[in-house]
Design a protein that fits this description.
- The protein is an alpha+beta fold.
- The protein has a domain of 56 residues.
- The protein is 22% helix and 19% strand.
- The chain has 1 helix and 3 strands.
- Strands 1-2-3 form a 3-stranded antiparallel sheet, with no helix packed on it.
- Strand 1 and strand 2 form a beta hairpin.
- It is globular.
- It starts with 27 loop residues before the first strand and ends with a helix.
- The relative contact order is 0.17.
Length: 85
């Protein structure tokens, strides 16, 4: 999830299951339109995960050029923040 505005906001994520689970984010998907892949991961849904944390990926994800451009700008901003954290 990205914040395209300059205004901070809070996001609440609620997970539920009928049976107890070993991990709530098991087999989660990261849709990376810049790279054109869907990554499957356990333990969290984050961009720029180390390759070792990506269980598998599917290539061929397509998006409009404007969406790819917007997501590239947001990704680059996130990576800048991560580099200085």
């Amino acid at each position: 999830m990205g914040n395209a505005s300059g205004t901070p906001f809070v996001s609440l994520h609620v997970y539920a299951a009928l049976q107890p689970l070993a991990t709530i984010t098991a087999n989660a998907r990261v849709f990376d339109v810049v790279e054109g892949v869907i990554q499957f991961t356990d333990g969290g849904v984050f961009f720029a995960l180390p390759d070792a944390q990506v269980k598998r990926q599917i290539t061929g994800l397509k998006a409009t050029p404007s969406l790819v451009s917007d997501q590239r700008r947001l990704r680059d901003a996130r990576l800048q923040v991560m580099a200085h954290a």
